[in-house]
Write a structure and sequence with these properties.
It comes from Anaerolinea thermophila (strain DSM 14523 / JCM 11388 / NBRC 100420 / UNI-1). This is DUF2200 domain-containing protein. The radius of gyration is 13 Å and the shape is globular. The protein has one domain: Helicase, Ruva Protein, domain 3. Strands 1-2 form a two-stranded antiparallel ribbon. α2 runs parallel beside α6 and α3 packs antiparallel against α6. By secondary structure, it is mostly helical. It is built from seven helices and two strands.
Length: 116
Amino acid sequence: MPNSQIFSMKFSDIYRLYIQKSERKNRKKEEVDQIICWLTGYDWIELHQQINQGCNLETFFTQAPSIHPNASLIKGKVCGVRVEDIEDPLMQKIRYLDKLIDELAQGKTMEKILRK
């Protein structure tokens, strides 16, 4: 799928998929919210405003208050591609979030997921 198609996807649709994935693995919606807020700098209210407004992924990440400084510590593969090797900054942020949700679904502790 070309980047432009991914960037134009509604964040609310992706968010719903993150929740479904985590709940299938007995994790909580609140943990997904915590991960998203940690990565993007949104607080809970701002996060849910973005979801309710129906913004796309590009807008969601462009308007993010601040990407966490430890985001660069996120390593590994998503869809067969190493997140640390992705050159497009927006795509890298999207894949960082995908990787964090994968780690949640794999049963990692929040402390490890949030790179503490």
